[in-house]
Write a structure and sequence with these properties.
With about 120 residues, the protein is an alpha/beta fold. The strands form 3 sheets. Strands 5-4-10-7-9 form a 5-stranded mixed sheet. The protein has a 3-stranded antiparallel sheet with strand order 1-2-3, covered by helices on one side.
């Protein structure tokens, strides 16, 4: 079952009544995990780019849609290699400001994975 995202604040996100103070991935089965940002190298001192290794970690077989909350400042992006990887898996990646991504997540149906950047 897909958990509902209830609110976002600078540095936190509340999902199904639980507050997380880090970037999160929501899996196909609804499990919420902490982002493994060490899989993406820092660019200009920040982890705002999802690299191929992290994309491979985020993806799950059968996923058809990835909603990426890019943060309130909309800094997060996919590296070209990560974008290619999702295309090869036939998984459409949609990058939206985190506020818009939450709306998309809460109304999404089907095989969807979520990635939400909350730190900026």
């Amino acid at each position: 079952m897909k958990p509902r995202i209830e609110r976002i604040g600078t540095g936190s996100i509340t999902i199904a009544g639980v507050q997380f103070q880090h970037d999160v991935i929501i899996r196909l089965n609804g499990v919420v995990e902490k982002r493994k940002q060490e899989l993406s190298p820092l660019v200009k001192g920040a982890s705002h780019r999802i690299a191929l290794a992290e994309a491979q970690h985020i993806y799950e077989p059968g996923a058809r849609w990835l909603i990426v909350g890019t943060g309130q400042a909309e800094f997060v992006e996919l590296s070209p290699e990560a974008a290619d990887f999702f295309r090869q898996q036939e998984c459409q990646a949609q990058l939206l400001s985190t506020v818009k991504a939450i709306r998309a997540w809460n109304s999404a149906e089907g095989a969807v994975i979520g990635f939400f950047h909350v730190m900026c």
